[in-house]
Design goal:
This protein is of the alpha+beta class. Helices cover 63% and strands 7% of the residues.
Length: 747
C-alpha cells in the first residue's frame, strides 16, 4: 500500500511540488494573523464551578461582568501635591472618556481600595470595562495605553512620573504579544544551530536545507489551520510555542530520517526516483508510525475539559499531521527532482567523514553486546536516580514569575504590590443563590448572609469584602431588611448594588472578596478551597443556599482538579493505544511493552529534572529566574507526558525499524541489534541534537510555563536519545534475544 502511494507521489512529483507551493503561499497570511484568535483565558467544554459563576453573572448580573484595568503612577513627589493630583485628575478624565469604560475610581474618590502607597508616592486608578466590552477587553489595551501616554506627555510631570497599565486585560494582551514574539524569536534562534547540526549530519548543504524547509512549512501550515479553527472555538495562547517547537522538531526529524535513507539508496547506485520510493517505503513507514504515536499523545489531551489543554491538543494534531504529510509527499517528490544534487557540495562530506565514521558505533555496539546485563542494570539505575525527584513534585502556581518580565503589565503589578493594592486586581467572586421563590436579602437568610460576609472578612488572607451587606459597620440587620424590603427604592439609593451585587428579585447575591497584597496565587487558590469547604459543610443560616466560588483563582482550582482527574485515563489511553500500534507494526508483544515502559521513564526523568532545576532552584538562574518556583503548573506534567511520550517514540521506532529489518534478513538478534545501532547511531544523535536545540531555545522564554515545557522537552529528548535509546534499549534487545519478536517470528 505504502509503496503504491510512494510511486504515485514520485510519478506526479511536479504536481505535488506545485500544489504544496500554492498551499504554502495561501497559508502564509493566515499564519501571520494567528495571534488575533489566541487568548489566555480559560474556557471549559463542560461546566465547572467557576464557569457556572461566570455564566450566572453574565445572565443575571450583567453589570457585574466587568474587567478591571489599573493605571499605576509613581512620582518623586507625594500624591497630595498639586502637580501629582492634577495628573491623576487628567488621567481619570481621559480614562472616563473611553467609550468602553463604565467607571473609574481613584484615591480622589475615597481610598477604600488602598489606592495610595504608604509613602504616598504611588497611586492607582481602577477602570472597569462595561459588560458589553468584557469579552474583547484585551483588544482595547493598545489604544487605552496610547490615550494615557498622550495625556501624560503633555503634563509637566511627563519626565518624572512612571506610568503602567495593568490588570487582567492588559496581562492577556502582553502575554499574547510576548508569546508571539518569543515563538518567532525561538524559531529564528533555533535555525542556525539546527542548520549546523544538519550540515554535520549530512556533510552537504543541499541535504541540510531540505529538512529546515519542511519544518518551517509545517509551522506555517499548522498556524494557518489554527487561525481557521480559532474562528469557531477558543484557542489558548500556549498553543503557539507548542506548534513552533513541535513543528520544527518533528518536521526536521522526519525529514532527516527520509533524506538519510534516500542518500543511502543513492550510495548503492539506485536511480533518484527509485531511491525516493525506497526511502518513503522504509523510513517513510517509520515516520508514519512515529507521527501516529505523537498524535496519540496530543489527542489524549482532548480528554481534559479545559480549553487550554484542548487547544494544545488541536495545535499538536495539526502540526504533526502537516509534518507527516510534508515528509511523505513533498519531500519524496522534491528528492526525486533534486536527485544526486542532494550531496552538493561534494567536497564538504570529506571534511566531515570523521563524524560519520562507523568504528565508534561498531565498538559501542560490540561493547553493549558483551556487557548487556551490566549496561541494562546500570542504565535503569541511573534513570531511576534522575526520575526520583518527580516523586517530590508540588503541583500549583509559582508565587512569582508568572507575569512576563519586562512587560508593562508586569511592571504595573510590581508597582501595585509596592503600594499594597495588588489584591484589587483579581478578586474572588462568591455567588449565593436562595431556593426558588426565596429572597436572600429577606428575613430568613439575611442574618446568615451577614455572618458569612463577616467570616470572609475575618480571614487574614482577605483585605476587603464588597457585597450587598457590606455598606459599613453602622448597618444592622434591621437596616438591611428595611433597605431591601423595597427593591425599587434600594435601586435608587444604591445603584452600585442592585443589579451588580444583588439580583433585582433578591434571590441571588454576589460578594467580591479582595485579597491581602501578600497573598500569592497559591494562597488565593487555598482560600477558594476553604470557602467551598465552608459552604458545602452548610454555613449557619444558609443551609439551603447554593454557594459557588468563581474568579481567576477559582478557575485555577477547577483547572487543576479537572486536569488531575483526567490524567489517569489519559495515561491509560496513550499507553494502551501506543502499545497496540507498536505491537501491530512490529508483530511483537515484548517490544511494545518495553517501549511504553521506557517512554514513561523518559517522562519521569524530564519531570524529575524540572523539580530539581525549577521547583528546587538548582541552576534556575541560568533561565533568568531569581528564586525557585516552589511549585509546577498543573498543565506541565500532562503536557510533558503527552508530547514526550510521542516524541520519544521517534527514536524508538526508527531504531527498532532498522533492527527489525536486519533481523528479517539474518534471523540473528544480536547481529541485528548491532547493525541497528551502527546504522542509526549518528543519525539518532543528530536528530536528538536538533530537538534539544529547538526545545532548549524555548527554555529561555519570558513566559514561565513555556520555560517549563521547553526545558522538560529538551532534557527528555537528551535522556531518551542517549541513555535510553543508545544504552538501555539495545542492552534489553540483547538480553531478550528472540523473545523480542515473539509471536511474529516463525523461525
Amino acid at each position: 500500500m505504502i509503496e503504491l502511494f510512494a510511486r504515485a507521489i514520485v510519478r506526479h512529483r511536479f504536481v505535488v511540488i506545485a500544489s504544496w507551493t500554492a498551499i504554502s503561499i495561501l497559508a502564509l497570511p493566515w499564519a501571520a494573523r494567528v495571534g488575533e484568535v489566541l487568548s489566555i483565558e480559560s474556557g471549559w467544554v463542560r461546566p465547572v464551578e467557576s464557569s457556572q459563576v461566570d455564566s450566572f453573572i453574565e445572565q443575571a448580573l450583567p453589570r457585574a461582568q466587568a474587567k478591571i484595568i489599573a493605571v499605576v503612577l509613581r512620582a518623586p513627589m507625594a500624591v497630595d501635591s498639586v502637580p501629582f493630583s492634577s495628573l491623576v485628575q487628567g488621567i481619570a478624565r481621559v480614562v472616563a472618556e473611553q467609550p468602553y469604560v463604565r467607571d473609574v475610581i481613584s484615591y480622589l474618590d475615597g481610598d477604600e481600595l488602598n489606592l495610595v502607597s504608604s509613602d504616598r508616592h504611588t497611586t492607582a486608578l481602577i477602570a472597569t470595562i462595561g459588560p458589553e466590552h468584557a469579552d474583547t477587553a484585551s483588544r482595547v489595551i493598545p489604544t487605552f495605553r496610547a490615550a494615557i501616554r498622550q495625556m501624560v506627555d503633555t503634563h509637566p510631570l511627563a519626565h518624572e512620573v512612571e506610568v503602567a497599565v495593568t490588570g487582567e486585560p492588559a496581562l492577556e494582551w502582553d502575554v499574547r504579544t510576548v508569546s508571539i514574539v518569543d515563538a518567532r524569536r525561538g524559531e529564528l534562534r533555533a535555525l542556525a544551530p539546527t542548520a549546523a547540526v544538519l550540515v554535520l549530519a549530512f556533510g552537504a548543504l543541499a541535504a541540510a536545507a531540505i529538512p529546515i524547509v519542511i519544518g518551517v512549512l509545517a509551522i506555517i501550515g499548522a498556524l494557518a489551520a489554527l487561525y481557521i479553527v480559532g474562528a469557531f472555538t477558543p484557542i489558548a495562547v500556549l498553543v503557539l510555542p507548542i506548534v513552533s517547537m513541535a513543528g520544527l522538531g518533528v518536521g526536521i526529524d522526519y525529514s532527516l530520517f527520509i533524506v538519510s535513507r534516500f542518500r543511502e539508496e543513492l550510495g548503492r547506485g539506485v536511480e533518484p526516483a527509485e531511491a525516493s520510493v525506497r526511502a518513503t517505503v522504509t523510513a517513510g513507514r517509520a515516520v508514519i508510525i512515529s507521527g501516529l504515536t505523537v498524535a496519540i499523545g496530543f489527542a489524549a489531551l482532548l480528554l481534559t475539559p479545559a480549553s487550554e489543554t484542548r487547544s494544545i491538543a488541536v495545535g499538536g494534531l495539526l502540526v504533526v499531521a502537516v509534518a507527516v504529510a510534508l515528509a511523505t509527499t513533498l519531500l519524496p517528490a522534491s528528492l526525486a527532482v533534486i536527485g544526486n544534487r542532494v550531496d552538493w557540495p561534494r567536497g564538504l562530506a570529506r571534511h566531515l567523514a570523521r563524524y560519520h565514521a562507523a568504528p565508534f558505533w561498531q565498538q559501542w555496539s560490540r561493547f553493549l553486546a558483551k556487557h548487556r546485563r551490566a549496561a541494562l542494570g546500570g542504565g535503569l539505575a541511573l534513570v531511576a536516580v534522575i526520575a526520583w525527584p518527580f516523586s517530590r513534585i508540588e503541583i500549583g502556581v509559582p508565587p512569582a514569575g508568572w507575569f512576563p518580565p519586562g512587560t508593562e503589565s508586569s511592571r504595573g503589578v510590581e508597582m501595585m504590590e509596592s503600594m499594597g493594592g495588588r489584591g484589587a486586581l483579581l478578586p474572588i467572586r462568591v455567588l449565593l443563590q436562595a431556593p426558588r421563590d426565596e429572597r436572600l436579602v429577606g428575613v430568613r437568610y439575611l442574618r446568615g448572609l451577614m455572618r458569612f460576609s463577616q467570616a470572609l472578612r475575618a480571614d487574614d488572607r482577605v483585605s476587603k469584602v464588597v457585597g450587598p451587606v457590606d455598606l459599613g459597620s453602622r448597618m444592622s440587620t434591621l437596616h438591611y431588611l428595611m433597605l431591601y424590603g423595597n427593591m425599587a427604592a434600594a435601586t435608587r439609593r444604591h445603584p452600585e448594588l442592585v443589579g451588580v451585587y444583588v439580583t433585582p428579585d433578591g434571590g441571588a447575591v454576589l460578594m467580591d472578596v479582595f485579597l491581602a497584597d501578600t497573598v500569592t496565587m497559591m494562597t488565593a487558590m487555598s482560600l477558594v478551597r476553604d470557602v467551598r469547604t465552608m459552604a458545602h459543610a452548610g454555613f449557619p443560616g444558609l443551609s439551603s443556599v447554593t454557594v459557588r466560588v468563581g474568579g481567576i483563582a477559582a478557575a485555577g482550582v477547577d483547572e487543576e482538579e479537572a486536569i488531575l482527574a483526567a490524567l489517569p485515563q489519559m495515561v491509560l489511553l496513550v499507553v494502551l493505544v501506543t502499545g497496540v500500534l507498536l505491537a501491530g507494526a512490529f508483530r511483537s508483544v515484548l517490544v511494545p511493552v518495553k517501549a511504553v515502559l521506557l517512554n514513561l521513564f523518559s517522562v519521569a526523568g524530564a519531570l524529575g529534572l524540572i523539580v530539581v532545576v525549577f521547583q528546587w532552584g538548582f541552576g534556575s538562574q541560568l533561565f533568568g529566574l531569581d528564586a525557585p518556583t516552589e511549585a509546577v503548573f498543573v498543565v506541565v506534567p500532562i503536557l510533558v507526558f503527552a508530547v514526550v511520550f510521542g516524541l520519544s517514540m521517534d527514536y524508538e521506532v526508527f531504531l527498532l525499524s532498522r533492527i527489525k529489518e536486519a533481523y528479517d534478513d539474518s534471523g540473528d538478534n544480536d547481529r541485528a541489534t548491532m547493525e541497528g545501532i551502527q546504522s542509526t547511531g549518528s543519525l539518532i544523535t543528530s536528530a536528538a541534537a536538533i530537538m534539544v536545540v529547538v526545545f532548549g531555545t524555548f527554555a529561555f522564554s519570558r513566559v514561565l510555563v513555556v520555560q517549563f515545557l521547553g526545558f522538560a522537552l529538551a532534557v527528555a529528548v537528551f535522556l531518551d536519545a542517549t541513555l535510553i535509546r543508545m544504552v538501555i534499549v539495545p542492552a534489553f534487545m540483547h538480553v531478550a534475544g528472540r523473545w523480542n519478536w515473539w509471536p511474529g517470528d516463525s523461525r
